[in-house]
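Anyone else keep sequences and structure tokens together like this?

Example one:
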Amino acid sequence: MEDNLELLKTLTLKNEKKIIFLVIDGLGGATEPSTGKTELEVAVHPNLDKLASESLCGLAVPVDFGITPGSGPGHLSLFGYDPVKYLIGRGVLEVLGLGMELTENDLAFRGNFATIDSNGIITDRRAGRIPTEETVRLVGKIQKNISRIDNVEILLKPGKEHRFAGVFRHPDLVENITENDPHKEGNKPHKIQPTVDTVQAKFTTEVVNKFIEEVARLLKDEPKANYVLLRGFAKFPNMPKMQEVYKLTPAAIAVYPMYKGLAQVVGMQVIHGCETIQDEVNKLKELFTQPYDFYYLHIKDTDKLGEDGNFDGKVKKIEEIDKIIPEILSLQPDVLVVTGDHSTPAVNKGHSWHPVPVALWSKNPPTPRNNVKMFTEQEFSRGMLGIVHMTKILPLAMAYAGKLDKYGA
């Protein structure tokens, strides 16, 4: 993989053609033993099938073969950034997505409310996916009682369901620390440790561990959410923006804070006020007459259902998404890309290394016809796009939109 952002800066052209990236989070699947099929192979999706037959199709690798990506690296790759070079801590994405400000003195993090038993064993990493209003109450309870530790200011904000995010604010904080999430139930939470031998890393570790301990004491009588798992410790990154590299005027339409945060980091205008898939489509229609030329529309539920191991639920969600494809095409975009940021097979109950289906449809010039008749992983393996690194999808979309000049004489 090669970082070509500097080359792209010299080739990008500004025009009025419009590109839509419909990102179906966790889109790719894997074979479910009882059916011998993936979620896409079981789902009935005639509109996606028709789109595939008219598109340049293939499979995309977000990071590298065999490597399972997080949502941050997967999305960065989709937007053309080398996810190894431009690694962004997820805490930054969550914090920005929730509308919090970040300063140079801030260490951002994301958190889950969790359930822990009397032996200190985590029985539910998501506290039964408590409703958002319960998270609002709990965050308020913590913030009221714990606002500062060792002269470090603590700022928190609730997210969706069991999620929240926050910042530790102090000039001596660093991101070189571990996380306390063991990533599986039935384990004790880890102790936060420094990953470098510096005074700042040791100080940061002490503050975060004290915070976790104080929160555990404060929440000990809560029936479900009696513990917190903190992840994604990060400082604000310095990255080239999409306007600078691609000369695009990009807009982001998403429900969940993390994806809004990521869009903000790469320079997108974040659009708020959506709660459902139909809300997002309606917002896309509303914005399509405005002077944006790149629209990122993110759908989360497929990923969530895959992580829950809900094969049938993911199938039904794909079928629901299929129904919005004609609405998106009715806007007559110049280029439409339908893909995911990574695969989340229900059989894995989590992200996986499987390549992600990608369909690139173009109005003029039209994409070449191929033998793909169905929107499935197996069909896309025969597509003309082949197996491609995910960072190449946006430059291809720009080429079909006439936004890339010739290279060399």
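And example two:
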Amino acid sequence: MGTYILKRLLLIIPTLFLILLINFAVIQIAPGGPVEQAIQQAQTFQGMGVSGAETAQSSQSQYQGARGLSADMVEQIKAQYGFDKSAPERFWLMLKGYLTFDFGTSFFKDKPVTQLLYEKMPVTISLGLWSTLLIYLVSIPLGIRKAKQHGLIFDKSTSLLLAVGYAVPSFVFAVLLIVFFAGGSYFQWFPLQGLVSENFSQLSMLDKIKDYFWHMSLPLLSIVLGGFAGLTYLTKYSFMEELNKQYVLAARAKGLTENRVLYGHVFRNAMLIVIAGLPEALVGIFFVGNLFIEIIFNLDGLGLLGFEAIVQRDYPVIFGTLFLFTLLGLILRLVSDVLYQVIDPRINFDARGVK
């Protein structure tokens, strides 16, 4: 196992490099970068009154938004954002900084990217951990009961609920919950946006806890509704597979009760794949499900930060969040593989030559 972990850790380096390189190349050809936006803002303050000669001369500029600005001012703007250097040089400087986790400074927020990530991380972690806990608390008991009553009324009646939850993404549930319960067309039982109220600092500890979960109710419910179906199916069919094995038949033949067979013999083996898949579930919930939920409910987390950075073409923030998401995702997937072997020692990645 040690050899496998070492290989996977070493593989993280070229994987991160290739992902950053591809995204850096794509960003370079994307229109509306920070230089163009800064030039447009400068034009707004300076005014649009330019002579015909100036317009003809500026039409030859690399940036179409530079009309009406002097060449020196354009060069100053390019230098401000680091675009006075060539693309390979900028990419090399970025990689050097990333070796020490220096992601640069945000173009538009005037803060180091590491500080922004540190400020936004608690919101994303809080949302991800609570939603994952709730999904497991709902899916595992539901999956076990469906496995016990496979083909019966309970199993068939809940299958429609699972089909809806599996087909409809979390952000659709979020929109529906806002319409019905957050001041849309019906009720205003929950706040529309934000993680806490404006007077949060003035509340007592108990009231702070109530206020926090009051704001978290709809976002968490959206993620749970959109994410519990897959784990429920996984739990159900994992238990059904174990229930058909010989050791279960032998346990029943000894006269053991059904609950004793289920929780004394089947549970540990059936839960192997469910528990080992927890890191993979965290990857999906943190980096996919949270993104749209944070945007819809205006929760100031990493998802919203990344979205705003893409809209503003804030390249340091874009690459910083991308680097963090990719690194955590690769590490969590490695943890998932390690859990498989810890829970089931029969799995040996080194012996199978897994790369």
